[in-house]
UniProtKB/TrEMBL annotation, chain A:
Assigned keywords, A-Z: Coiled coil, Gas vesicle
Subcellular location as annotated: Gas vesicle
PROSITE patterns tied to this protein: GAS_VESICLE_A_1
Native species: Actinocorallia aurantiaca
Keyword Coiled coil listed: yes
PANTHER family in the record: GAS VESICLE PROTEIN A1, GAS VESICLE STRUCTURAL PROTEIN 2-RELATED
Lineage, uppermost ranks: Bacteria, Bacillati, Actinomycetota, Actinomycetes, Streptosporangiales
Location of region: Disordered: 1-23
Protein name: Gas vesicle structural protein
TrEMBL record, chain B:
Compartment(s) where it occurs, according to its Swiss-Prot or TrEMBL record: Gas vesicle
Source species taxonomy: Bacteria, Bacillati, Actinomycetota, Actinomycetes, Streptosporangiales
Pfam families attached to this UniProt entry: GvpL_GvpF
Originating organism: Actinocorallia aurantiaca
Main localization category: other
Signal keyword on record: no
Family: Belongs to the gas vesicle GvpF/GvpL family.
Keyword entries, A-Z: Gas vesicle
Protein name from the UniProt record: GvpL/GvpF family gas vesicle protein
Entry keyword Transcription regulation: no
Origin superkingdom: Bacteria
Length: 129, 272
C-alpha cells in the first residue's frame, strides 16, 4: 500500500503549532500507526471500568489469523481444504456416483432393475409367440 | 457541561490538555459519534464524551476489544479527538478506553494525577511527534544465520562455497541497509528533543511490504519542524534500496510517559 498522496513527503511549509498542516489527516492515517500509539502509548491510567487491552503484538498475531485471505493462505501453502474429500467438489461427484451405484444394487437385489424387467418382458413375449 | 448524565452511561476520556481556547474541539466527534465534553480541574482539561456502559462496560469491552472493526473505529475516534485538539493546545493522550462512571470521577482523576499530567504537558508543549519508518526491499535475515567466513577449499565443496558467497552477499546487503537505517536514525535524533523506538509493524496491519528496519518516533520542537522535514527529505534520497516514510505531526503519544530517559538527546544536539 502506498501512502495516500496527502502524506507524501513534499512541500514542507512553515507549519508550526496552529498552522494548518498537510499531514494532519486523521482519516488517512495508517491503522497500524494509530493502533501502536493508542494501544501501546499515551498515559495509561486505571479508569472505573476494568479493561484488558490486547498488547499490540498479541493483536497483530490475532489479526494475522483474521485477515489472512484464502489467496494469501494458498501462498503460504495452506490449502488443506482442497485435499479434504468432504470439502472438494471431486468428492461430491463421488458421493453422487456411490449413490447411483447403491440404488442400482438395491434395484438388482429387489429384482426391480429396469434391465431385469426388460429381459423378463422379452422372454415373456418370446413365450407368447 | 450542564448536561445531565444519562443512566447507564460513563465518560470516556481521550486525553488531558491545557490552555484550550475552546475553538480546538470544534465539531469533532468522539466514540459513538458523541460530542466532546471538556471537564476541568485546576487548570487541566479532560477531553471526554459520554458513552453507554452497554458498549463500554466491563463485560461489553471484553467482547468488543476482540472485534477488530470495533477496535478500529474506536481507535480512530480516539485519535480524531486527540488529533483535533493537540493541533491547537498541548495535549497528552490517554490510553485507549479509559472510562469513568461520572464527570466527578474524571475530576477526581485529574486532581489525583495533577502533577503527572502537568509534567507531561510541560514536556510536550511546543513540540510534536513525528513518525519515521524505514524499509528495505531485501530479504529479512533468516533465524540465526551463521556468520560463516572461511569456506573449505576442497574441490567437492565448490557448490557449498557458492552458496556461502550468495549468503554472504545477502548478509552484506542486509548489514548495509541496517547501517543506512542507523545513520538515518542518528541524523534525525540530533534534530529531536527525544526519540522512542517502536516495534516493527506487522505487514498485515500496515499494508507495507519489505523489511522494516526502523520504526521510530521523534519529539520535535516546533521551531525545528522544518529542519526535521528537510532532513527526512534528504535522507529519503540516500539509498535507492531504502525507503523512508514520514508521518505526522502526531499528538505526543509516544512521549506521554517518562520512559526511556536514556533516549533524551537534548544535550547531544545542543552540544554539537
Amino acid at each position: 500500500m502506498s501512502e495516500p498522496p496527502g502524506r507524501e513527503m513534499s512541500g514542507y511549509g512553515g507549519y508550526g503549532r496552529g498552522a494548518p498542516s498537510p499531514y494532519r489527516r486523521t482519516e488517512s492515517a495508517n491503522l497500524a500507526d494509530i493502533l501502536e500509539r493508542v494501544l501501546d502509548k499515551g498515559i495509561v491510567i486505571a479508569g472505573d471500568i476494568q479493561v484488558n487491552l490486547l498488547d499490540i503484538e498479541l493483536l497483530t498475531i490475532k489479526l494475522r489469523l483474521v485477515i489472512v485471505s484464502v489467496d494469501r493462505a494458498k501462498e503460504m501453502g495452506i490449502d488443506w481444504w482442497e485435499h479434504d474429500p468432504t470439502l472438494s467438489s471431486g468428492h461430491r461427484d463421488m458421493v453422487e456416483e456411490n449413490r447411483r451405484l447403491r440404488d442400482r444394487i438395491a434395484d438388482l437385489e429387489a429384482g426391480t432393475d429396469d434391465y431385469q424387467e426388460e429381459v423378463e418382458e422379452y422372454y415373456e413375449e418370446d413365450r407368447r409367440e | 457541561m450542564s448536561d445531565v448524565q444519562a443512566p447507564g452511561s460513563g465518560f470516556y476520556v481521550y486525553g488531558v490538555t491545557r490552555g484550550l481556547t475552546g475553538e480546538e474541539v470544534g465539531d469533532v466527534r468522539g466514540v459513538s459519534g458523541a460530542p466532546v465534553r471538556l471537564i476541568e480541574k485546576d487548570g487541566l482539561t479532560a477531553l471526554a464524551s459520554e458513552v453507554s456502559l452497554s458498549e463500554f462496560g466491563e463485560a461489553a469491552l471484553r467482547e468488543n476489544l476482540e472485534d477488530i472493526e470495533w477496535l478500529e473505529s474506536t481507535a480512530r475516534a480516539h485519535h480524531a479527538v486527540v488529533d483535533a485538539v493537540s493541533d491547537g493546545a498541548a495535549t497528552v493522550p490517554l490510553g485507549l478506553v479509559t472510562v469513568y462512571r461520572s464527570e466527578e470521577r474524571v475530576r477526581e482523576a485529574l486532581g489525583a494525577r495533577h502533577e503527572e499530567f502537568a509534567r507531561a504537558l510541560d514536556r510536550v508543549t511546543g513540540r510534536t511527534e513525528w513518525g519515521v519508518k524505514v524499509y528495505a526491499d531485501v530479504k529479512q535475515p533468516e533465524a540465526a544465520a551463521p556468520a560463516g567466513k572461511e569456506a573449505p577449499s576442497r574441490p567437492g565443496t565448490s557448490y557449498l562455497q557458492r552458496r556461502l558467497v550468495q549468503r554472504n552477499t545477502a548478509e552484506e546487503e542486509r548489514r548495509r541497509v541496517l547501517d543506512v537505517a542507523e545513520y538515518i536514525h542518528c541524523q534525525l535524533r540530533d534534530l529531536a528533543v527525544a526519540t522512542r523506538l517502536h516495534r516493527p509493524q506487522d505487514p498485515q496491519l500496515s499494508g507495507e511490504q519489505g523489511w522494516m528496519l526502523l520504526n521510530a518516533a521523534y519529539l520535535v520542537d516546533d521551531t525545528r519542524v522544518e529542519e526535521f522535514g528537510d532532513a527526512v527529505k534528504h535522507l529519503t534520497r540516500l539509498d535507492p534500496d531504502v525507503r523512508v516514510r514520514l508521518t505526522g505531526p502526531w499528538a505526543p503519544y509516544s512521549f506521554a510517559t517518562e520512559e526511556e530517559p536514556e533516549e533524551e538527546v537534548e544535550e547531544a544536539w545542543q552540544g554539537s
